[in-house]
Design a protein that fits this description.
The complex is a heterodimer of chains A (472) and B (431). With 472 residues, chain A is an alpha/beta fold. In chain A, 28% of the residues lie in helices and 20% in strands. Chain A has 11 helices and 16 strands. Helices cover 26% and strands 22% of the residues of chain B. Classes of the chains: A alpha/beta (472), B alpha/beta (431). Chains A and B meet through helix 9 of A and helix 9 and helix 12 of B.
Chain lengths: 472, 431
């Protein structure tokens, strides 16, 4: 195994060296060579959906995920896609009818903030792969290179109806590195799980964590130090981008000896974030921290896809709406540290009511298993405060809005025609504590059936251990 | 009189005069028309009346009797339960958990105690902590509170507190002592269970040995523990107060059962009990109750490979008394935890019992709390509906017969920001 791996590595190396040799030799003699292009996808997705028959789910209460509710209705899944919601649908040949009388159907839940695999269970120093806490700016690291697909948390999240998630580096650093969007079909290597063509995310962090981690390691040790750190990183990335722009301009102008700039993996990721090709996801609790970042965003002309945790978004919901920045929030976590002290249970509905983009997220291997309940609490607390949002609308917090913030809403996040058939059948109204995900479909394939223990995924780690294959 | 005897006298005085909550305005209140879960032998009554007199439950009866001299609370369509009891919290000891100033639920090593047993949180309770109102208005009326990490064998002596009258939060000081026998205990005591258990056995043996012996500063004492530790542990070895033992894997739980068999007087409670379902029968046979987080279902360590959401239900089915509620800032979520246990096999009645009467029994305060029965403190919650449903909420909370102000720092923040103003800074807006 090891030998063949090494051979493969050697082969790759030889190919790369050969490529460069070819370039330098032929430079003078031949007409214009193509400019050097960076491979932006060196770890391509190898995800393959499980083969599936057509499925017609009938007699259900269906939330389409974009505000619509269909009572006693059907939804047809075919070739891995949603075909239609309606009352007059018939199942194609070889199709399966699932009678969901009394049950509810929703799009699969999408969690924009997970650390499954990078802080895998069992938690231990050996599995602490989420924070490259060696430098405040580590844009060069990629969460996918830390993900252990044998983390049993993936299966647990699946039994909570989670079909897609973004796995992020931790929040020790100002810039923690790239996040990755995966489908919740545990594979053997992370490439098997990667959501094809999903843009990368980049994790950044405000406030207490970076200054605590680096306060005695050379800084930053203050919030102002944090902000100086982000700005310098962006300025460096702009400078780096100019170098490459110059190279391409020179090459275009026919300057045959234009030197290919040295790649800097850190600045490369930051530069892509400045261009909007990588989406910025920023851990930020306090309203004032978020306010500062909205200005940094303008200064360097980039976009923050979402503030994560955002416990004080309710204080600046109007500004967030105007800036078009989502807030990914808990329903009721608060007070575990100072910047979380002003957390309130109406944060999510208040952000929604201000017409800003609200997302329910977990940041927890337990919370990810019942995000529907988190939405339910927020919804109910909003109603008690006079914010009347329908359940159908509120489901946007769980699927559509997270999909938008991850740049995958074209493919998933709602039960619209042509979208990926990522679907959950709930035993009851999913805004109830007692509701459970009974069927979870990913790209049309049934990948979790609560009533069929033989169908449950069991991670390698759990084989031969107490409780193997038990109902979890 | 020796110090030891003085000490135990003091604690017995505290025990017998524990109703430290004074009802200032003695009022008669009748809660009328609700579905009442008494958690007593009366069971659940549809359309019942709860009569409260002088801060205590006078009676619960079916229907609507003719009432004179009572303030009437109309609770038609509502659900009434006893106040919830936070089974394992650090309420009153901490405001901000992390990097936020003094946290009385933690300690650094000190010479006053060699085992942590002597530490006493009853001195540290801050009833003005913002957590109190936040928990109170969601139906948590009583809590067991204690230190978490002390870096030592024991996490000190915990207290039972009321979330009502802020001038007298203590219901019972020195009500229990906590320890850990799993990896998290071993990690701080010698790095191995082999060290940890010897330390624990030795501590208990020393306390047992010291029963009836004088422990004044001038008395000779050659034990490993300090005299203060010994004094704290004597009620434990006598079985007067529970010893809460954090044990998660089946093997650790079996060790605790074996300890109880060796020392039958010990009033052992197992906390976490993550793999408890694997030894449920033995736990039931040895009459050992548990306090657990029913949502723990990951192999988060080699201590809990067999964890499952079914744990609470399986334990209860085997006859183990289950209590639920291990949280501090969000102890209000204990009812969601119980609801999830119910979704996974625990009976609904046991789900509510796990938040009320079972906790009261475990701490030996079921003579005055935990159910709606004549003579008990009138800690009562009126809910909009099923309290185990995440979408329902406490609408009115009474503690010792007093309706509490349904307001907290969080409700005030909400009310300030519900309508964002632009004509003046928000700090000028009083909710």
């Amino acid at each position: 195994m090891k030998t063949s791996d090494n051979k493969r590595q050697l082969f790759k190396l030889a190919a790369v060296v050969g490529f460069f040799t070819l370039m330098s030799c032929s430079d003078k003699d031949k007409p214009k060579q193509a400019a050097f292009q960076i491979n932006q996808n060196p770890f391509p997705s190898t995800y393959q959906p499980i083969a599936s028959n057509s499925v017609l789910i009938t007699n259900a209460t269906i939330l389409d995920g974009i505000g619509g509710v269909f009572n006693n209705s059907s939804v047809l899944l075919q070739d891995g896609k949603v075909v239609a919601i309606g009352n007059d649908l018939s199942v194609p040949e070889n199709g399966v009818i699932v009678d969901a009388k009394g049950k509810w159907v929703t799009p699969g839940i999408i969690d924009v903030h997970s650390h499954l695999g990078v802080f895998a269970a069992p938690g231990s120093t050996a599995h602490s792969d989420g924070n490259e806490a060696t430098n405040p700016v580590t844009a060069e690291v990629w969460a996918e290179h830390s993900i252990w697909p044998q983390d049993a948390g993936f299966q647990r999240a699946l039994s909570g109806g989670v079909t897609v998630m973004q796995i992020l580096p931790g929040s020790a650093n100002l810039v923690g590195g790239r996040g990755v969007t995966v489908k919740n079909l545990p594979g053997t290597s992370v490439q098997d799980m990667k959501f094809p063509d999903a843009p990368y995310g980049m994790k950044m962090a405000c406030g207490e964590n970076p200054k605590r981690v680096y306060g005695k390691k050379g800084g930053p040790s203050t919030r102002m130090g944090n902000v100086a750190g982000y700005r310098q990183a962006w300025a460096d990335a702009q400078d780096y981008q100019r170098t490459w722009d110059q190279y391409y301009a020179d090459h275009e102008a026919g300057k045959q000896h234009a030197k290919v700039p040295k790649r800097d993996l850190k600045l490369e990721t930051l530069a892509l974030a400045l261009k909007g090709e990588i989406l910025v996801h920023m851990h930020c609790y306090r309203a004032d921290d978020m306010g500062t970042m909205l200005d940094v965003m303008k200064e360097f002309n980039y976009k923050i896809a979402a503030f994560h945790h955002a416990v004080e978004s309710y204080k600046i919901a109007d500004q967030l709406a105007q800036a078009g920045v989502c807030s990914a929030m808990w329903a009721d976590w608060w007070g575990f540290k100072f910047e979380a002290y002003d957390g309130i249970q109406e944060n999510i509905p208040m952000v929604h009511a201000a017409k800003a983009c609200a997302i329910v997220h977990s940041d927890s291997d337990l919370g990810i298993q019942r995000l529907n309940q988190e939405a339910a609490k927020a919804w109910a607390n909003g109603r008690r405060a006079g914010i009347d949002i329908s359940q159908a609308e509120a489901w946007q917090w769980l699927s559509a809005n997270p999909a938008k913030s991850l740049g995958i809403f074209e493919q998933t996040g709602s039960l619209e025609k042509g979208k990926n058939a990522d679907v959950v059948i709930w035993s009851a109204d999913p805004f109830s504590t007692y509701a459970q995900a009974e069927h979870v479909y990913l790209d049309g394939a049934l990948i979790y059936d609560r009533n069929d223990p033989a169908s449950w995924a069991v991670s390698d780690f759990e084989l031969g251990q107490p409780g193997e294959g038990d109902s979890k | 009189m020796s110090k030891l005897i003085k000490y135990s006298l003091l604690s017995s005085i505290l025990l017998s005069s524990t109703l430290l909550i004074q009802v200032v305005d003695a009022k008669n209140i009748a809660i009328v028309g609700a579905k009442v879960h008494t958690m007593s032998s009366q069971g659940t009554l549809e359309n019942a009346t709860v009569l409260i007199q002088d801060g205590k439950i006078q009676k619960v009866l079916e229907g609507e009797p003719a009432l004179a001299g009572y303030d009437i609370i109309n609770a038609k369509g509502k659900v009434v339960t006893p106040g919830l009891i936070g089974a394992s919290t650090a309420l009153g000891l901490v405001d901000v958990g992390f990097s936020g100033g003094t946290n009385d639920s933690q300690s650094s090593l000190t010479s006053i105690s060699k085992s942590g047993a002597a530490f006493d949180v009853s001195y540290a309770i801050n009833p003005d902590s913002s957590l109190m109102a936040i928990a109170r208005i969601e139906g948590v009326t009583t809590a067991a509170t204690s230190m978490g990490r002390t870096g030592q064998l024991f996490s000190g002596q915990g207290a039972l507190i009321s979330l009502g009258d802020v001038s007298k939060p203590l219901l019972q000081a020195r009500a229990f002592i906590s320890t850990r026998v799993g990896s998290n205990g071993a990690d701080i005591i010698g790095g191995s269970r082999s060290v940890l258990w010897v330390s624990l056995e030795k501590a208990l043996a020393e306390a047992k040995f010291a029963i009836g012996k004088p422990l004044t500063p001038s008395d000779e004492w050659h034990g490993e523990l300090s005299k203060a530790d010994i004094a704290a542990l004597i009620p434990v070895v006598k079985g007067e107060i529970p010893l809460l033992v954090d044990a998660r894997r089946a093997a650790d739980i079996r060790q605790v059962i074996a300890l109880k068999q060796r020392q039958p007087k010990l009033n052992v409670v197992i906390t976490y009990a993550t793999e408890g379902w694997r030894v449920a029968k033995e736990l039931a046979a040895n009459n050992i109750p548990v306090i657990l987080d029913p949502q723990a279902n990951l192999p988060s360590g080699f201590d809990q490979l067999g964890s499952t959401l079914k744990n609470a239900g399986r334990l209860a089915a085997a006859g183990v008394k289950v209590s639920i509620g291990m949280e501090t800032h969000n102890i209000r979520l204990a009812r969601q935890h119980a609801g999830n246990a119910v979704a996974n096999g625990l009976s609904w009645e046991q789900g509510l019992a796990a938040l009320t009467i079972n906790v009261a029994e475990l701490y030996g305060i079921n003579n005055r709390l935990g159910s709606l029965e004549a003579g008990k403190l009138a800690d009562v919650v009126i809910w909009s509906g099923d309290p185990l449903e995440v979408t329902e909420a406490a609408e009115l909370v009474l503690i010792a017969g007093e309706p509490v102000e349904m307001q907290s720092r969080q409700s005030k923040l909400r009310d300030r920001y519900l309508r964002l103003q632009t004509d003046k800074p928000m700090q000028y807006v009083r909710p």
